Amino acid sequence: MSNVFKEIEKSYKVFAVKIKDEQIWPWLRLDFMYLSIKEYTSKKINRSFSIRTFKEIFYGFTNWFSGYHYLVFSSSNQRVRINNRMFDKSVDFIIDELGKKKCLYIEFPDPNHFSKDKCYTKKIASYRFIELVRVIFRIILKFSALKIEREDIINAILKDYNLKLRAPLKELANRFYIDVRLYTLILRMYKPKAIFVNNAYGKMAIVYAANKLGIKTIEIQHGLIGRSHPAYNSTLSLDTLFYPSAILLNGKNDGKWLNKSGIYKNSELFTVGSFYLDYINRNFSGSSELRAQIEGYKTSVGVSLQLDFELELIGFIKKVAHKLSNVAFILIPRGEYKNDISNIDLPPNIITSNTENFYQTIKHCNYHTTIYSTCALEVPSLQVSNILYNYNNLSQNYFADTLNSETTIIVNDLLEYVQAFAQLEEKNKTKIDNSINFIENYELNIRKVLRHLVD
User: Fold this and answer.
1) pLDDT band at 341 (very low <50, low <70, confident <90, very high)
2) Residue 202 has what DSSP assignment?
């Protein structure tokens, strides 16, 4: 995934590119990161995306007008149904521990906000309002005097690798520092003790502004880190102002890799596990409808689909399903794309999941298949084994160092899949230890960490 990106950081003095004697590579490298994986594109299923309505700006609007000790940034795709409320599995338990009235949850609608009366979180406001203000700031503010030192280095990279940035470098710099000014204003208004962010590299301007003001910045791990994710791994020593002062990790393995990285070397690392994996293991009851659908089959495989390669994975699973006709394959679409696959011609042993979410579905299964969805890291904690389809070598790149042969087999073609299936069937059904990726006892762990970080 990141070979081109690693070559760039190794071959060019990117840390010498500065504005006012300050590195800009920490935020600019994210643009290059996406450019470096541009070859991973796919045919897309036709989709109707939700329209960003003007109404979303006013979602929870009155909650902006209170004082808070903590600001929490997350997205609606983290919500799962618990006791008839939509619960953010990444931050809501943290908010409960910090105090519901002390926290403003700023939610990005991905794809939409849920009705406020259905949400577990009470002090919630839409990130759409910040987006509106950002547009206004970008119209009004221009840092035309920005002088980029050693811009020639960036131009050489673009030329040598035949790449093109999404906008001219000075415009990208303007956008970043305008965002920093906006977030600095917000943080000065609320004066929070700390901010919590789900996916810090996607919110770097917020983290940077908070660090500049001396506000504690805490990242909540949202997916795979490992040694392959370029947003978390670099051999360079990058300016720590751009990165959180602490990160809450799922398992032991990611902390090992972060300690070797030049990016998070000064961040405090805390392994806490996953709230929702613990919850599902304690409270799973199952779906009678799904049980009835798979009842006549020898066993079942949950298939996690992904936006980038849904068609490729579905095509492969169709071949496998014809070969393993006594096995039920349950396709699990992700997010807003749940209804797209209904128009695809599928054999009878491929089932479209109608259950609430991925976790509720996969608990009915004995095996799990995907290409490189981070669901592969979670399912061993639910006592489910992986058979990963190594399309474009993505499974190998992402998971070779994070999933072992006791829980996971990576295959390249139909024959290897069938052989792997037989191999896993023969294994003894002993309890799977997945602490390398997700430790247990999240609630106890998070309470200890919060006492250290914010008390």
Assistant:
1) low
2) G
Please count the residues of the chain: 455
Tokens 């073609």, located at residue: 413
Q: Is 43:311 a contact under the CB 8 Å cutoff?
A: yes
pLDDT at 339: 47
What is the distance, to the nearest Å, from the Cα of residue 409 to the centroid of all Cα atoms in its chain?
23
Q: With beta carbons less than 8 A apart as the criterion, state whether 88 and 120 touch.
A: yes
How far apart (Å, rounded) are the C-alpha atoms in residues 332 and 309? 13
pLDDT for position 40 = 43
CA distance 236 to 259: 13
pLDDT tens for residues 251-280? Answer: 988 888 888 887 887 789 999 999 999 999
* Beta strand segments in 138-222, E: 148-149, 194-198, 216-220
Are the CB atoms for 163 and 157 separated by under 8 Å? yes
| Residue 25 CB neighbours (<10 A) | 23
The pLDDT-based confidence of 150 (bands split at 50, 70, 90) is: very high
Rounded distance between C-alpha atoms, residue 452 and residue 216, angstroms: 12
Instruction: Determine which helix (DSSP H) or strand (DSSP E) holds 74, and give its type and residue range.
Output: strand 70-75
Q: What is the largest CA-CA distance in the chain?
A: 70
**Euclidean distance between CA atoms 206 and 221, whole angstroms:** 16
Q: What is the pTM of this model?
A: 0.88
Strand partners, 387: 409
Strand pairing category for 79-82 and 85-88: antiparallel
Please, what is the average pLDDT of the chain? 88
